[in-house]
Write a structure and sequence with these properties.
The protein is 32% helix and 14% strand. With 111 residues, it is of the alpha/beta class. It has a single domain, classed as Rhodanese-like domain (Oxidized Rhodanese, domain 1), CATH 3.40.250.10. It has a five-stranded parallel sheet.
């Protein structure tokens, strides 16, 4: 399956304009270390059972640590008929870029 991808610069632009829903598929301990403010958390292992929690009216932008789990999550969502895109480089690239993150439960939705 060909998975559509965007880089973190494209992600930042999309987040600024409210274009898409950012889904983080990492583990809760990774989320607590650092996450993007606009993200919601559904771990990869829970994703198949929680598809109904995702929007169907906009693209789901999927992030993980480095891009592997988010690629798998993209396959799951696309297979379920949702519009999804993988964020290349994941949180490591986001952090390397110096962009802002939150830690712990700093106001972002967490399942």
């Amino acid at each position: 399956m060909d998975i559509p991808q965007i880089d973190i610069d494209q992600l930042a632009t999309r987040l600024e304009t409210g274009d898409g829903h950012l889904l983080d598929v990492r583990r809760p301990d990774e989320w607590d270390e650092a996450h993007i403010a606009q993200a919601s958390l559904i771990t990869l292992d829970e994703l198949p059972d929680r598809l109904d929690e995702l929007p169907t009216d906009r693209q789901v932008l999927i992030v993980c640590r480095s891009g592997g789990r988010s690629a798998l999550a993209s396959e799951i969502l696309i297979g379920a008929g949702l519009d999804a895109v993988n964020v290349e480089g994941g949180m490591l690239a986001w952090l390397d870029s110096g962009r802002d993150v939150l830690t712990g439960d700093d106001g972002a939705p967490r399942a």
